[in-house]
Amino acid sequence: xxxxxxxxxxxxxxxxxxxxxxxxxxxxxxxxxxxxxxxxxxxxxxxxxxxxxxxxxxxxxxxxxxxxxxxxxxxxxxxxxxxxxxxxxxxxxxxxxxxxxxxxxxxxxxxxxxxxxxxxxxxxxxxxxxxxxxxxxxxxxxxxxxxxxxxxxxxxxxxxxxxxxxxxxxxxxxxxxxxxxxxxxxxxxxxxxxxxxxxxxxxxxxxxxxxxxxxxxxxxxxxxxxxxxxxxxxxxxxxxxxxxxxxxxxxxxxxxxxxxxxxxxxxxxxxxxxxxxxxxxxxxxxxxxxxxxxxxxxxxxxxxxxxxxxxxxxxxxxxxxxxxxxxxxxxxxxxxxxxxxxxxxxxxxxxxxxxxxxxxxxxxxxxxxxxxxxxxxxxxxxxxxxxxxxxxxxxxxxxxxxxxxxxxxxxxxxxxxxxxxxxxxxxxxxxxxxxxxxxxxxxxxxxxxxxxxxxxxxxxxxxxxxxxxxxxxxxxx
Length: 477
Ligand code: NAD
Prior knowledge:
The protein is an alpha/beta fold and 477 residues long. The protein is 40% helix and 21% strand. The chain has helices at 35-52, 57-86, 90-111, 147-161, 175-186, 201-210, 223-234, 258-270, 287-302, 323-338, 393-401, 416-425, 458-463; strands at residues 2-3, 6-7, 15-20, 25-31, 117-119, 126-134, 138-141, 165-168, 194-196, 216-220, 239-243, 248-252, 280-286, 342-345, 364-367, 384-390, 405-406, 408-412, 430-433, 448-449, 452-453, 466-474. The strands form six sheets. It has a seven-stranded mixed β-sheet with strand order 14-15-16-13-12-18-19, sandwiched between helices. The protein has a six-stranded mixed β-sheet with strand order 9-8-7-10-11-21, with helices on both faces. The termini are far apart. Bound molecules: nicotinamide-adenine-dinucleotide (NAD). Nicotinamide-adenine-dinucleotide binds next to α6 and α7.
């Protein structure tokens, strides 16, 4: 743990084990942070805030830039650690860290662009300034699926805005995030500006959120956890940003470029073993394109290469994060099959000695599905793509909107006018037309409905770390 500028490993405390999901082996341990640690970290962050909020924009930018340079230098080593604890193939881990560096670069620039306004007066002699100031110490809590990137999406705008931070990574993946924080320590972050605590979500998370010094909580994780965080933040009316679960539809119109739709669909349904908030969870295909789409989708899925991503850096897929995640996937498939779904591909562990120990599972394609099945309404967070035939684009949109979630929707059509009208009708924070690109730092990313609250990334994301102040001046002359 890193508190008040000092690395610290408490003696004689119980530890949390870190498991390699490709082998099932424990390969590291990290301390279980306590309420006392949370208290020390937030007191440190609060003390540091009094200075950091006064730092020049160029000083804040410089810290982010230096941390970025160190991260890029250490990228090969941190990527290996990320693959070891998370399971994603090495090339994917490198990609996550490069995207992290991009986020640091972007918000380094933004640190120097925070501006206010002078608004017109209502009466003679009055002046109205609007300024933006950092909200205060931020608690940043992240998930295990993109552990470094999703913490960086909080730390970078927070530090750019002049906030200080206490980071809590997910219990399954604390190691690469620790190295990320080390980049800031070595870049010369003043003590207390960035702190790191490892520990179990519920107890430690609650202590961090409820702490009187905590001004804001930035969270990515499950919708259910998001509800708990809202409750914990309610007493202090703390500012919150929540990036929560998704259940993302892909709509394929009859006039779509089927090759592109299949390529995008397979990639976004199974990447990171479907353990992404913006994974495609269900696919609606217009009748005329249905048979060809399904056939090509299964064919493309069959070609995905599953492996231990340290041994095969360029594999498409690694293992799932743990047995609980794999079991949930099995449960969702069994429920669908019991209600009449057909398994066209996958549905089980891959065969072969190399898959015996880890939490591997085959990418799975289902057809004959309907909205009575759990897989069509609840987030599986696993490699399952259910495909449903629909009679029109309107019907597809109706089904797509039949969800408590509203994170991302995807649509393939060659008629951009139709695509734009559909995008406006879809109740989602992001709509991708003819592409399945993920979160990019320049554009706002936020869930509608129960997928979240507030925005991450872009200028909108920076605003979440700033408070607006109106200064009303009357000239007495
Ligand atoms: P999770 O909610 O189980 O855990 C996320 C983090 O919250 C962890 O650090 C955990 O220790 C902590 N935590 C758990 N209970 C807590 C509590 N009561 N108070 C405070 N902190 C607590 O989520 P996960 O399993 O790590 O991640 C997967 C989920 O994250 C999926 O639902 C996925 O859709 C979502 N996700 C969303 C986005 C997005 O941008 N919308 C991105 C990635 C993942």
